[in-house]
TrEMBL record:
Gene3D superfamilies: 3.30.70.360, Zn peptidases. NCBIfam families: amidohydrolases (TIGR01891). It comes from Pyramidobacter porci. The keyword Ribosomal protein does not apply. This is Amidohydrolase. The Mn(2+) ion enhances activity. The lineage of its organism: Bacteria, Thermotogati, Synergistota, Synergistia, Synergistales.
């Protein structure tokens, strides 16, 4: 297996990032560490700190050729990390209360720096340009600063990214043709009625009863209005109304998200939820407003780039397996506005080490061996895409 040995420093850096996670948009320490390493490698570092923490490192070989962007995200989640994984104590745990790298972005950042080292050392054997893109705020759907910086460097021929995946065993790589992460849109429904005594509901307009019917109606959208061959999810994750047992409130609210693998289905779901909320509210004499935010399209892997990534994974000795698309969403999708994209999944589960809890859960723990595989895959893909000098 032609895996690149990860220097102890990079493994230590990954652990350091894990111990000091920073929430979306606040990755100042992480960005400073990344910038220092890119500068040490004599890459051109491009930042716009007044606009965000994202930064780029440019490796220009000086020889004509294509331009490839490589992307890593840097932020952590607002979660309290559990010191144990599925088997027992973790090797390394967050030292920051209420923040934890429970999606593996510490691996992405460190793995990309390892790749930057290797590719800088191999510069004389490459053509074209490489742009290392470190994105801030992925978990919150921020990261527009990264894309703005990158767009300034157009033309860019492709962008490649890795996401570690607890759904797959360590040692495996999954590169899907087409949609590989779901699109997403977040909604908040505010139902307004009229307060009344709980014993005399006819004197008011009950927004809780109305919101409950909207919730049931919303769930029927997926089962009755979306083609069963299209994968889509509509989930309400909070529901609030009233504060006591004998008074109907004026208002009831709920929040949730839509997930979809086709933008057309996403737009249909958006319209159908508004129609359902307005129609049910009108029937109940209430009003319903639907507020939307964080539209993110699905990530869609370009077929030729996906084939190249699978071939690169085989070359480095990864076990290339078939896998399902991820129902979670990724701002990686938005780079499609700039150039064709491919996002490779690298397995990080290992039951022997207790690694296998899902991402975004407090017991998530990635097998550290996935760091070497992620870096090796990035290096191999970049070499194959750019070609030799
Ligand atoms: Zn993630």
């Amino acid at each position: 297996m032609n895996r690149i040995p990860i220097e102890d420093e990079i493994a230590a850096l990954r652990r350091d990032l894990h111990r000091h996670p920073e929430l979306s948009g606040r990755e100042t320490r992480t960005a400073a560490l990344v910038a220092a390493e890119l500068e040490r490698l004599r890459l051109k570092v491009i930042r716009a700190p007044e606009k965000g923490n994202s930064l780029l490192g440019v490796l220009d070989t000086g020889r004509p050729g294509r331009t490839l962007a490589l992307r890593a995200d840097m932020d952590a989640l607002p979660l309290q990390e559990n010191a144990c994984n599925l088997n027992g104590p973790k090797a390394v745990v967050s030292e920051i209360d209420g923040a934890a790298h429970m999606c593996g972005h510490d691996f992405h950042t460190a793995g990309m720096l390892a790749a930057a080292r290797r590719l800088s050392a191999a510069k004389e054997r490459l053509r074209g340009r490489l742009i290392f893109c470190f994105e801030s705020g992925e978990e919150m759907g921020l990261g527009d600063d990264a894309r703005a910086l990158l767009a300034e460097l157009k033309p860019i021929d492709a962008i490649f990214g890795v996401h570690v995946q607890a759904a797959f065993p360590c040692g495996t790589a999954v590169v899907i043709d087409g949609s590989c992460t779901a699109g997403c849109e977040t909604f908040a429904v505010k139902v307004r009625g009229k307060s009344a005594h709980g014993a005399m509901p006819h004197l008011g307009l009950d927004p809780i009863n109305c919101a409950a019917q909207i919730l049931c109606g919303a769930n029927s959208i997926i089962s009755r209005r979306v083609n069963a061959r299209e994968a889509a999810v509509l989930t309400v994750c909070n529901f609030h109304g009233g504060s006591t047992w004998n008074r109907i409130p004026d208002e009831c609210r709920m929040e949730g998200s839509l997930r979809f693998f086709s933008e057309r289905v996403g737009r249909d779901l958006h319209a159908l939820l508004e129609q359902t909320a307005a129609g049910i509210a009108a029937a109940d004499g209430c009003t319903a407003e639907v507020h939307w935010r964080n539209w993110c399209p699905p990530s869609v892997n370009d077929a030729a780039l996906a084939a190249l990534a699978r071939a690169a994974a085989e070359k480095i000795g990864a076990d290339v397996i078939a896998g399902e698309p991820w129902m979670a969403s990724e701002t990686f999708a938005r780079y499609r506005e700039i150039c064709p994209e491919v996002l490779a999944f690298v397995g990080c589960a290992n039951p022997d080490k207790g690694c296998g809890a899902p991402q975004h859960s407090d017991r998530f723990d990635a097998d550290e061996d996935c760091l070497a595989l992620s870096a090796a895959l990035t290096v191999q893909f970049a070499q194959d895409f750019l070609g030799g000098a």
